[in-house]
C-alpha cells in the first residue's frame, strides 16, 4: 500500500528517511511529503497550498492510500480524509489529533517577519524531547524550516462527513493510549465522531521518526495491513 508521510511543523520529507526504508522492506510504498513553504524552495505558502499538495499525493497513489500525519500535521492527514474519503484507506495520527473546523491550523508560537520559526527547545522540555540527545537536538534545530504565517494561521475547513467513516489509528508517543482516549472523550470532537479509532503505543518522545524509526515503521505497516 502507498503510505503518505507528512511531518509536523518545521520538518520536510527527509525526516522520514529511516521510517521509509523500513516500510519498503516490509513491502509498502512510502511517500514522504515535503510541503509547500516547508522545504520545497518556495518562500511563502498557505494552508490551502499544503492541503492541495497532500490531496494531489492521495490522487497520485496507486489505489487507496494510508495517510500519516505527525503532530499538527495530523490535521493535514484528516483533511485528506475529508477531501478524498473514497481514496483514503486509513489515517494514522502520530503524536497529535486533528483540529476542528473553523479553528486555526497551528497558531502556536510567535510569528516574526511572516514566518513562525522553531522556538527552541524550551517549550518541549519533558516527555516531548526526553529521548533526544544533544546531537539530535542541534541537528533538528539547525534543519528547522520556518513555517509561513499563512500556513500556521490558516483556518481549517472540514466539509465532508464521510471522513468519519475512514478508519483511524492514533499512535501514542509521549502520551499513553489511555490519555488519548480521555482527550477524545473530552475535547477532540473530530475523533469522538469517528466510527473506527484504534490506538498504538510507542515508547518515544514527540519525534519517533527520529528516535524510534524502525518501531514506528512496524506500527504503520501493521496499520496499513489491517486497512
UniProtKB/TrEMBL annotation:
GO terms for molecular function: hydrolase activity. It comes from the Bacteria. Keywords: Hydrolase. InterPro entries: AB_hydrolase_1, AB_hydrolase_fold, Carboxylesterase_BioH. It holds the Pfam family Abhydrolase_6. The keyword Hydrolase applies. This is Alpha/beta fold hydrolase. The lineage of its organism: Bacteria, Bacillati, Actinomycetota, Actinomycetes, Kitasatosporales.
Amino acid at each position: 500500500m502507498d503510505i503518505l508521510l507528512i511531518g509536523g511543523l518545521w520538518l520536510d520529507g527527509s525526516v522520514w528517511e529511516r521510517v521509509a526504508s523500513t516500510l519498503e522492506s516490509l513491502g509498502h510504498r512510502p511517500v514522504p511529503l515535503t510541503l509547500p513553504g516547508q522545504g520545497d524552495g518556495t518562500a511563502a505558502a498557505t494552508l490551502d497550498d499544503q492541503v492541495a499538495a497532500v490531496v494531489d499525493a492521495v490522487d497520485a497513489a496507486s489505489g487507496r492510500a494510508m495517510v500519516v500525519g505527525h503532530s499538527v500535521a495530523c490535521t493535514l492527514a484528516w483533511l485528506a480524509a475529508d477531501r478524498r474519503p473514497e481514496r483514503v484507506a486509513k489515517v494514522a495520527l502520530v503524536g497529535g489529533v486533528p483540529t476542528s473546523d473553523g479553528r486555526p491550523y497551528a497558531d502556536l508560537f510567535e510569528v516574526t517577519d511572516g514566518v513562525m520559526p522553531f522556538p527552541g527547545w524550551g517549550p518541549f522540555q519533558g516527555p516531548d524531547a526526553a529521548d533526544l540527545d544533544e546531537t539530535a537536538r542541534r541537528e533538528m534545530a539547525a534543519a528547522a524550516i520556518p513555517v509561513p504565517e499563512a500556513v500556521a494561521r490558516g483556518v481549517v475547513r472540514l466539509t465532508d462527513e464521510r471522513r468519519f467513516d475512514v478508519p483511524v489509528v492514533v499512535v501514542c508517543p509521549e502520551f499513553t493510549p489511555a490519555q488519548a482516549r480521555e482527550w477524545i472523550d473530552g475535547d477532540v470532537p473530530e475523533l469522538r465522531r469517528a466510527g473506527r479509532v484504534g490506538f498504538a503505543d510507542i515508547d518515544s518522545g514527540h519525534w519517533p521518526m527520529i528516535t524510534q524509526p524502525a518501531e514506528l515503521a512496524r506500527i504503520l505497516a501493521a496499520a496499513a495491513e489491517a486497512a
